[in-house]
Amino acid sequence: MNDFIKFTGPADVLAFIPHTLGQNPTESFVALTLQGNKIGATLRVDAPFGQDTVGFAQTVVSYLTADEAATGSLLVIYTDESTADGSRPYAGHVQALRTELETAGMPLQDAWLVTSELWRNYHCTDPNCCPDQPLDAITTSNGNAALIYRGSAVTGFIAPAPFTGEETAREAISAHTPDGWPEDLEASRAAWAKVLDEPKSLTTETAHQLAGALQHPTIRDYMMGDIVPHAPEQFTSVLLGVFLARPDWARVDAAQEVAFELMKATPEGQRAPMLCLIGWLEWLKGQSSFAARYFKLALEDTAGYRLAELLGELVNRGLLADCSRDPKKAYDRRLKR
Question: Which InterPro entries does this one have (predicted)?
């Protein structure tokens, strides 16, 4: 089957964005690189309310330059902000982006404004030439239909399921928390590897064993690294998404699903490691906004949880995982089945 989908107009491009991001953006700037007549990388950042125009533009373009094959770019501004004089919102930021993109060799080809009620061309202000368009023109576009037909879905943020086990689970998980001896580490990693290879093999006892193992910081870090085979030995590199090859994203998806299952058997006060794990994997996929929500939930579960604080700082600084900046390694949500 031909893996390419032909987009014939703006509505198709706007339909593509929620599928590749996994969410419908709000108060966001979304930039897409173009490789000739093909879409390359997609980047979402929060709308730059109150931010310096040039600094914001330079930061965005520094991320986009990871796509070395880019020859042009597109921009979509998702916002309900309005201006007193009726001009386009964030005009200064868009102009600064246009200048920086031109300098970087990926000139801006077009831009659109999407609100909660309509969408329109950002640059054209003549209603006779570029009238406002209803949002359903996006959802009913041929591009959206083609993406859905190929199995893509916009799932959005998935809240963790509530604890459904017995209260004795707390003691069981504590009893399974290792002391950190080498044999504990190897046993935990072996149990983790088996479940990642066969998620349906997860039992309540194994869930308590793995939830206990994740309570130990060192063993937790090894288990996180084991999600991506052939990852560097240095945990800092793993944490930042610096991988030698494209991650096995199917295994990453499996690890997230297992972590959600573990939380069903894990009471409050012991869930922070799993929430951090899920949030970190979302960050590796380029989903910073989702990641931040999981890190916040981790801190609500366990106040001062250090890993949640560290990972949350990565998001707060606007840093992207190394793998998400490389089109050859980045997660492709459209391929998920």
Answer: DUF4192
Q: Are residues 278 and 204 in the same domain?
A: yes
Taking CA atoms, 256 is separated from 30, 195, 259, in Å, by 25, 12, 5
Q: In what order do the strands lie in the sheet with 28-35?
A: 38-46, 28-35, 72-78, 108-114, 118-121, 133-134
Q: Which domain holds residue 251?
A: 169-335
pLDDT tens sequence across 131-158: 999 999 998 888 888 887 776 767 778 8
Kindly write down the DSSP assignment for every residue of 183-225, as one continuous string: HHHHHHHHHHHHHHH-GGG--HHHHHHHHHHHTSHHHHHHHHH
Q: What percent of the chain has pLDDT over 90?
A: 62
Measured CA to CA, the distance from residue 337 to residue 262 in angstroms comes to 22
Average of per-residue pLDDT values in the chain: 90
Q: Helix, strand, coil: what percent of the chain each, to 5?
A: 50, 10, 40
If you count them, how many residues does the chain have?
A: 337
Sign of CA dihedral 300, 302, 307, 313: positive
Between β-strands 108-114 and 72-78, what pairing exists: parallel, antiparallel or unpaired?
Answer: parallel
Cβ-based neighbours of 288, under 8 Å, separated by 6 or more? 44, 282, 315, 318, 320
Give bridge partners of residue 28 from the DSSP assignment.
46, 78
pLDDT of residue 337: 29
Are 138 and 183 in the same domain? no
DSSP code at position 43: E
Does any domain span residue 158? no
CA atoms lying within 13 Å on the CB side of residue 66: 22
